[in-house]
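Record type: monomer structure entry
Structure origin: computed from sequence
Chain ID: A
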Amino acid sequence: MPRTPRSGCPTRRALRMIMGAELFAPHWLDALQHLRSEKLQELVDHVGRMAQKGEPVDVGSVAFTTSLNLVSRTIFSRDLTSLNDDGCSREFQRVVTEIMEAVGIPNISDVFPGLAAADLQGWHRRLVRLFARLHRIFDEEIDGRLRRRDAGEPRKNDFLDLLLDTAEDGDDKERLDHHTLCH
């Protein structure tokens, strides 16, 4: 798996400051109350439609989809997956699901760390491929947002706008670049 910067790294410090000052700050959480209510209402409406049709509801799946959409709407101001099983925008959900399944598989190198370099189960290779797919999704979102900004579209005032503003405004030591934002 790609290494993350150590905690003493300036970019890691900058990201921690942004997360603490913005994403997990009470004012940000309060501002997102309407979004949580909206996502919950969408979930209730979906379950209601399924009940009217007499169809079973996969509670785990719809709760997971709702959680992913809450996160993607917070960061990108749009849903990256759908409660309706229409096949549309499912890549994000598939990748996250596959990552969760992969990290849940027992790995022999956890018991025998000396075998980690051999990657006998292909665990490391699989995670590298999965994270590459996830990064492509994020790259597309970031590149699309940058194009829309260049075209003069209004800001969304979401977490991605905050990160992009920080990347533009930061000093050289604390600057976030495109690679840091995407990876």
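Annotation 1: The two ends are 11 Å apart (CA to CA).
Annotation 2: The chain has a mean pLDDT of 82.
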